[in-house]
């Protein structure tokens, strides 16, 4: 890497959190313009896909009568398309139609307290998988619902926004950088000394922040889904924000977190959610079947253990060198990987 590259750290507020970018750019790069472009990129996703903005494009679709076509922006249609595809491939574990469950259990814009009546209503609806009742028309850039349900893209939209940030960085001619949005990260190139970007994976702990290890990342993306940051307590039990459509509520399995490395952050985000819902047995089977790179952290008898799937999370001596590499902390006190 050229020593003439200059370091720039940019950030801003969006989607109830913050976006960030750490870049090494040539002197001629227009950083003020890039800063504006990055903010616009994430805000555009927010305006289209937020469930917290009543006038977002997603909420227009949610408010439309079943059977009515709704014109949509290209980006939203792209995310809906991939969301339905991952839904099919995961057997419905990843489902973008759980908006009413999210609100009923107190994780949405409707409020932070579970609504027992709304929960009972959602449980009795038992809607089919969203990929069977949402129709997309890509040539006409429109969609329609064939049932009365609510879409929620919290398991994929931030990953897509991260990809949009990376596309913006590349459009400015920058070849080395790291962009992130609330735990979703995408990397291009390397740091000035030629080493990859180091991404810490948190130890699933409700009270303390400490790393399990780091992922060496280059020209790839990573997303982590976990049960230890966004949760509510009901009757002394902590409930995760991740919804399981088949259960009609928060997931209930031994998985504390899942990290997925993929070519795009949208892919990593959606698959991390899907595997989190499926749990250690079904999730492992699907990850192996789909050729995913995934790190499961499992709780068992009060201890944490790893399940490592794919070349990224295997010992460095096996296979060809991937675009990422897992380096666990030696003192992480985890059970040996399964």
Spell out the blueprint of helices and strands.
Elements: E1 6-14, E2 17-25, H1 31-49, H2 57-63, E3 70-71, H3 74-89, H4 99-104, H5 116-125, E4 134-137, E5 142-145, H6 157-171, E6 176-181, E7 184-188, E8 197-202, E9 211-217, E10 220-226, E11 231-234, E12 237-240, E13 243-244, E14 249-250, E15 255-262, H7 265-290, E16 293-300, E17 303-309, E18 324-328
Helix pairs in contact: 1-6, 3-7, 6-7
- Name the shape in a single word: globular
Helix content: 25-40%
Query: In angstroms, what is the radius of gyration?
Result: 20 Å
Q: Enumerate how many helices there are, as a single number.
A: 7
**Widest sheet: strand order?**
1-2-6-7-10-15-16-17
Describe it for me?
The chain is of the alpha+beta class and 338 residues long. The chain contains 7 helices and 18 strands. The two termini are 39 Å apart.
Entry keywords:
single chain, 338 residues, 8-stranded antiparallel sheet, 3-stranded antiparallel sheet, 29% helix, 29% strand, globular
Give a brief rundown of this model.
The chain has 338 residues and is of the alpha+beta class.
């Amino acid at each position: 890497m050229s020593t003439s590259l200059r370091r720039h750290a940019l950030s801003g507020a969006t989607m109830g959190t913050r976006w960030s970018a750490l870049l090494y750019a040539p002197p001629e790069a227009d950083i003020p313009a890039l800063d504006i472009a990055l903010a616009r990129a994430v805000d555009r996703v927010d305006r289209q896909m937020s469930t917290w903005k009543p006038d977002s494009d997603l909420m227009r679709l949610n408010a439309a009568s079943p059977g009515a076509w709704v014109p949509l922006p290209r980006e939203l249609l792209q995310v809906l398309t991939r969301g339905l595809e991952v839904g099919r491939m995961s057997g419905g574990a990843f489902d973008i139609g759980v908006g009413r469950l999210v609100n009923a259990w107190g994780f949405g814009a409707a409020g932070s307290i579970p609504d027992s009546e709304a929960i009972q209503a959602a449980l009795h609806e038992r809607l089919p998988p969203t990929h069977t009742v949402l129709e997309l028309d890509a040539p006409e850039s429109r969609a329609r619902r064939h049932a009365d349900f609510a879409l929620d893209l919290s398991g994929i939209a931030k990953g897509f926004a991260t990809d949009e940030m990376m596309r913006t960085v590349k459009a400015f001619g920058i070849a080395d950088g790291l962009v992130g949005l609330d735990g979703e990260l995408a990397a291009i190139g390397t740091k000035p000394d030629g080493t990859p970007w180091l991404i810490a994976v948190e130890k699933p702990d409700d009270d303390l922040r400490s790393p399990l290890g780091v992922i060496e990342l280059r020209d790839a993306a990573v997303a982590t889904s976990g049960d230890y940051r966004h949760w509510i307590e009901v009757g002394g039990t902590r409930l995760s924000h991740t919804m399981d459509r088949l259960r009609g509520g928060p997931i209930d399995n031994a998985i504390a977190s899942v990290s997925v490395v993929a070519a795009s952050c949208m892919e990593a985000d959606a698959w991390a959610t899907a595997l989190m819902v499926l749990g250690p047995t079904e999730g492992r089977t699907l990850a192996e079947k789909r050729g995913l790179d995934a790190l499961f952290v499992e709780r068992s008898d009060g201890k944490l253990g790893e399940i490592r799937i794919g070349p990224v999370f295997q010992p460095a001596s096996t296979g060809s060198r991937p675009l990422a590499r897992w380096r666990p902390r030696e003192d992480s006190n985890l059970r040996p990987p399964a």
